[in-house]
Backbone:
């Protein structure tokens, strides 16, 4: 009985992590980061000249990648808290 | 708002299209993921009051960072210069801090589900209906204007025909709100916020580098356009030349009347705070939002000012002229290579969708609770109102599509209506603030305050248009119109209240100062979760930014 309850809780926690906003933003920024970094690595000299001599896609791609990883790490370090069974209006601030 | 971007077709490469497509997949994915969580009307309209403050705080400013605002503010900066920062540092931050510290305990503690509902409990049904009706009408109109703007940009940037673009983008917004309700809208607003930063920060860095740095930018603009262009307070003395008018109008009219009217009574904003999980999180929502809001001018006003130097023909009238509203798209076209361009375009498209979603998600809540449940079909099951809310969402988007075509064909009419709704905000704020702090304010005084205040504000505007009252500009007029609306509204409420009966004290519980429900644990919270010190910090930073800018 307890065993299944714990399994259920673990399953719910996995779901909550998967659907946490930080997971969405983190994975979006990882995908964007990789794609934009790649565009920066393959940028032509004309591309770089156009952007005032900066390889802007490379830098912003790497920055997005770091941001994305940061969100995922944040989510893993501070996982979402499952809502209590009785949903009170003024839940204690736990996040 | 003229958004014609005719000759601005951007060359999107494969990677740019890829980024935009990934974003759309995420938007819909969020809707499906959150669908499981929508079990009651409270989940649909108020996210079950369960979100942490950082999410509601970012959504709070993001709901006001639609692309209409981004393009509009950069356009104003190119046209009027540095003074546009007033709309942020004095015209938003104090109001947001006030909302969090002073007003939120009434909104959240009284458990109302919408801003109009507070008016019904504190005053009477007349005041309630006046607010609920004007709010739903304004939401639909603004949703339509947002949709039209979005479709114009999609058409111009991606070459998709206008009608198809309108229907496509409306369907996206509709499906994710229908699936996940307010949570969906809020999640997308927060995600949009980070994408727009990722898209615009590189653009701003390049633009500032191109003009030779910040000091050089301000020196050049000052030399070419005069000292009122590169400084926020120059020429604000009575009789001065600053287009924003005199400092009294800026501080009292914009900084108090107009901004408090907008930020503290607009349900599209307040709804985000009501979705927070505790009184403390609700109070922290606008205050957390205030910190990024302080720096939004760096990605809107700054590129607008740079564009004036970098984009030939900006604001001109000749054949090769570029509309002010296209300052940022023109910079993107000129400077951003593949990859970075895709992020910026995605950010703009996302911002448009978020702007429209904010209107639709607050419209369906007010329509369902404040109009349908209150006046048409009271006392039905919760499930019934959830269904009504979903249907209202569909209807809202369909009407939004309709108003977007009106906006497309009768731009002036849409603009006039938007101006009309702004007259309403200030008297509404007076009604709230007096109702919250004066027990004596009588049930019927609210409606009369709103009515007389609005008429006074409209009258001021008409007298300005007829050249009876001279103002330096529409902006100058709007600040003083706000002050006049405030004074007339306040005098009316006091007069009507003194002549009538006050509301019985037992009906005021949770609604009036001294009887509101406070979070007793707030003093034990760590510093970064306490509204008063954090709010004070935002105000100090705001003043500091004025000082820093004056040294440029």
Residues:
């Amino acid at each position: 009985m307890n065993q299944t309850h714990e399994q259920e809780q673990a399953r719910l926690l996995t779901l909550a992590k998967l659907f946490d906003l930080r997971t969405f933003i983190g994975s979006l920024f990882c995908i964007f980061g990789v794609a934009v970094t790649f565009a920066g690595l393959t940028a032509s000299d004309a591309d770089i000249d156009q952007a005032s001599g900066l390889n802007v896609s490379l830098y912003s791609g790497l920055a997005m990648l770091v941001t994305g990883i940061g969100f995922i790490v944040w989510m893993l370090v501070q996982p979402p808290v499952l809502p209590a069974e009785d949903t009170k209006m003024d839940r204690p601030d736990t996040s | 708002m003229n958004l014609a971007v005719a000759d601005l077709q951007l060359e999107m490469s494969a990677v740019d299209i890829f980024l935009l497509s990934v974003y759309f997949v995420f938007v819909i994915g969020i809707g499906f993921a959150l669908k499981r969580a929508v079990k009651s009307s409270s989940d649909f309209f108020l996210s079950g009051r369960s979100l942490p403050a950082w999410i509601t705080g970012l959504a709070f400013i993001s709901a006001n960072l639609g692309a209409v605002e981004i393009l509009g503010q950069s356009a104003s900066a190119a046209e009027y210069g540095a003074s546009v920062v007033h709309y942020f540092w004095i015209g938003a931050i104090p109001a947001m801090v006030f909302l969090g510290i002073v007003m939120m305990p009434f909104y959240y503690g009284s458990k109302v589900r919408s801003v109009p509902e507070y008016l019904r409990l504190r005053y009477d049904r007349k005041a309630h209906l006046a607010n609920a009706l004007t709010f739903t009408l304004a939401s639909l109109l603004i949703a339509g204007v947002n949709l039209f703007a979005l479709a114009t940009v999609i058409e111009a940037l991606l070459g998709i025909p206008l009608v198809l673009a309108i229907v496509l983008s409306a369907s996206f917004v509709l499906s994710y709100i229908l699936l996940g309700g307010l949570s969906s809208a809020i999640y997308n607003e927060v995600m949009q916020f980070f994408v727009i930063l990722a898209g615009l920060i590189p653009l701003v860095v390049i633009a500032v580098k191109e003009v030779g740095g910040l000091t050089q930018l301000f020196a050049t603009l000052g030399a070419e356009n005069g000292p009122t262009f590169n400084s926020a307070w120059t020429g604000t003395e009575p009789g001065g030349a600053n287009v924003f008018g005199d400092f009294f109008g800026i501080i009292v009219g914009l900084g108090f009347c107009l901004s408090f009217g907008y930020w503290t009574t607009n349900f599209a904003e307040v709804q985000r705070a009501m979705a927070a999980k505790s009184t403390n999180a609700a109070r922290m929502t606008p205050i957390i939002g205030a910190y990024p809001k302080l720096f939004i001018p760096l990605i809107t006003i700054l590129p607008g000012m740079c564009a004036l130097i970098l984009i030939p023909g900006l604001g001109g009238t000749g054949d090769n002229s570029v509309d002010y509203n296209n300052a940022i798209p023109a910079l993107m076209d000129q400077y951003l290579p593949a990859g970075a361009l895709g992020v910026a375009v995605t950010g703009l498209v996302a911002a448009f969708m978020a702007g429209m979603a904010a209107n639709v998600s607050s419209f369906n809540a007010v329509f369902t609770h404040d109009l349908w449940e209150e006046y048409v079909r009271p006392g039905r099951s919760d499930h019934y109102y959830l269904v009504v809310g979903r249907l209202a969402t569909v209807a809202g988007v369909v009407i939004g599509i309709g108003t977007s075509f009106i906006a497309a064909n009768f731009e002036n009419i849409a603009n006039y209506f938007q101006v009309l709704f702004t007259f309403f905000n200030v008297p509404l704020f007076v009604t709230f603030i007096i109702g919250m702090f004066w027990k004596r304010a009588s049930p019927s005084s609210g409606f009369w305050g709103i009515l007389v205040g609005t008429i006074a504000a409209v009258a001021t505007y008409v007298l300005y248009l007829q050249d009876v009252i001279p103002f330096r500009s529409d902006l100058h007029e709007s600040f003083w119109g706000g002050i006049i609306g405030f004074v007339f509204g306040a005098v009316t409420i006091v007069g009507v209240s003194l002549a009538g009966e006050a509301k019985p004290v037992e009906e005021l519980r949770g609604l009036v100062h001294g009887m509101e429900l406070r979070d007793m644990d707030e003093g034990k919270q760590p510093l970064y979760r306490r509204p008063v010190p954090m709010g004070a910090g935002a105000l100090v930073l705001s003043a500091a930014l004025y000082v820093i800018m004056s040294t440029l």
Remarks:
- Residues 1-6 of chain B have pLDDT under 50 and may be disordered.
- The longest helix of chain B spans residues 162-210.
